[in-house]
Amino acid sequence: MKMLDYLKEKSIFLSVNLMFFIMISTVMYFSNISFVIIFLVFFIWFFPLSTYILIEYMKYRKYFSNINNILESLVIFTVNVLSSTK
C-alpha cells in the first residue's frame, strides 16, 4: 500500500480534524490569543495525530506486504504444480 493511498483512505478523518482545528483557532484568534499559543495548539493537536497515522500506515504496509508475498508464493506454487502435471 502506498502512502498516498493510505492518506486518501484517511482523508475524512484528517479533514474533520483540520476543520475542528480551524474552528477552534478562529475562536482563539478572535479572543485575542497570541499566535504562538495557536501554533502550540496546532502542534499538540497534529503531532500525535500524524504520529498515529504514520504508525498505522506502517502496520498496514507490513500486513499488505505479507499478503502480497503469500499470494506470490501461491502463484509460484500453482504454476509449478500445473507444469508438473503436464
Write up this protein:
- The chain has helices at 3-9, 11-30, 35-85.
- With 86 residues, it is an all-alpha fold.
- The model has no long low-confidence stretch (mean pLDDT 92).
Ranges where pLDDT stays below 50 over 5 or more residues in a row are: none
Report the strand count.
Answer: 0
Sheet bearing the most strands, described?
none
Helix content: over 70%
Provide mean pLDDT, rounded.
Answer: 92
Regarding quaternary structure, how should these chains be classified? single chain
Q: Which shape, going by the Cα principal axes?
A: rod-shaped
The whole-angstrom Rg is 23 Å
The number of helical segments is 3
By helix and strand content, what is the structural category? mainly alpha
Secondary structure elements and their pairing?
Elements: H1 3-9, H2 11-30, H3 35-85
A few lines on this structure:
The protein has helices spanning 3-9, 11-30, 35-85.
Descriptive labels:
3 helices; about 90 residues; mainly alpha
